[in-house]
Amino acid sequence: MNHLFKSAKDTKDVSHSSTATLLTAQMFFGRNGETPYEVPEKFLSFGESLRPKEANDWQKLVLCLKNNMKMDGNPATGVDAGNRPYTFHRVYKSRATLGFKMINGGGMPQLIEDYQEGKILIGFTLDDLIEEAKKV
Q: Across residues 110-131, what is the average pLDDT?
């Protein structure tokens, strides 16, 4: 039965993996041949569907990710009054915990999963994504 449990020294922390890719806005949309998180048209359409508070939460969460902040690995999920699925993410500052309700879409769920797994580092802001999505 001892083989079912691992000591803390046996676990590997990938939060600061040296193999993480610095993701740019161009890469988010697959402009350089990468698999896109979302296509520009759907990203912009999704953004237009957000209420001002929801768009503000997106902006703040992307900035937190760009600043390489630690996140809760077990976020709460639900469906809001508009029947849209969402995830409530917590991000940790040195003396505070921030919370963001993220309407699922726009490529964000996969982006957050890759960030949490240490596969990527964020090299853009929400404004950068919007600007890149508007390019032809």
A: 96
